[in-house]
Automatic annotation (TrEMBL):
<keyword id="KW-0413">Isomerase</keyword>
<dbReference type="Pfam" id="PF00378">
    <property type="entry name" value="ECH_1"/>
</dbReference>
<dbReference type="GO" id="GO:0016853">
    <property type="term" value="F:isomerase activity"/>
</dbReference>
<dbReference type="InterPro" id="IPR001753">
    <property type="entry name" value="Enoyl-CoA_hydra/iso"/>
</dbReference>
<protein>
    <submittedName>
        <fullName>Enoyl-CoA hydratase/isomerase</fullName>
    </submittedName>
</protein>
<dbReference type="InterPro" id="IPR029045">
    <property type="entry name" value="ClpP/crotonase-like_dom_sf"/>
</dbReference>
Length: 270
């Protein structure tokens, strides 16, 4: 499959999707959006892929929507119309919209934030499952400095990661947050030296690919994202149902067998 604004590769069961407009700090365009979605579908549908890394080429992760695209928006406040087909029609309606569809991907997604992540670029990484940040990364909401508002579920997800008042601070001020602060406030799960960022993200993803059940990660991912919307009793009921199914699965049998036989696991995802 040929892409013009992203790069896609698979090494040792890990797919890496690289936003690839480095001369524009990987500013988001309609073409990039379509290719990113297509690459995610490719990774999601490939049984050989067990985990996904998202990063940016050059010095930026994603600097937000390309300003040329912003120029095309009308003064009436309407953005160009676009259709959207959910990646997983069985996913919650909450996860069937631009950016918020990432939790419906059935594999772990790790954002390797190598540089500037602003505006829509920030929204993108918020809906990944984990965020590894370079120490020289820069997280910026940007919206207040463009006369805009928190888009694509950013207000909902940012609050859950960093807390209400910190989210308001980041939204109101549009100030720059570096990798170290992002880690301290919960916006990043790990901070890495710039030269080690991709290596550490790959090591983590390859460990998932080699040593854990893809069936388990798929179901646990859905459980944890769905748990943001349900009460404890509902979560417990769903967990009991999923546990009964897990005990009948091939991956459970393999999980017990490889432990008892003291060998490397050979999970099949079923």
């Amino acid at each position: 499959m040929t892409y013009s604004q992203i790069c896609y590769d698979v090494i040792r069961a890990v797919a890496t999707i690289t936003l690839n407009r480095p001369e524009r700090l990987n500013a988001w365009t309609p073409t990039m959006a379509a290719e990113f979605r297509q690459a995610m579908e490719q990774a999601n549908n490939d049984p050989q892929v067990r985990a996904i890394i998202v990063t940016g080429a050059g010095k930026g992760f994603c600097s937000g929507v390309d300003m040329n695209a912003l120029d095309g928006m009308t003064s009436s406040g309407k953005t160009p119309s676009k259709s959207f087909t959910p990646l997983d029609p069985a996913a919650r309606e909450d996860f069937q919209h631009p950016m918020t569809w990432l939790p419906s991907v059935g594999k772990p997604i790790i954002a390797a934030v190598n540089g500037a992540a602003a505006g829509l670029g920030l929204a993108l990484l918020l809906f990944c499952d984990l965020r590894f940040a370079s120490s020289n990364a820069a997280f910026v909401t940007s919206f207040s400095r463009r006369g805009l508002i928190a888009e694509h579920g950013t207000s909902w997800m940012l609050t859950r990661l960093v807390g209400h008042s910190r989210a308001l601070d980041l939204m109101f001020s549009s100030r720059r947050v570096d990798g170290d602060e992002a880690y301290r406030i919960g916006l990043a799960d790990r901070v890495c030296a710039p030269e080690r960022l991709l290596d550490e993200a790959r090591e983590y993803a390859e460990n998932l690919a080699a040593n854990v059940s893809p069936r388990s990660t798929r179901i646990m991912k859905r459980q944890l994202w769905d748990a943001l919307f349900v009460d404890l009793a509902t979560s417990m009921q769903e967990a009991d149902e999923e546990m009964r199914e897990s005990l009948k699965s091939a991956d459970f049998k393999e999980g017990v067998a490889h432990f008892l036989e003291k060998r490397t696991a050979k999970f099949v995802g079923g």
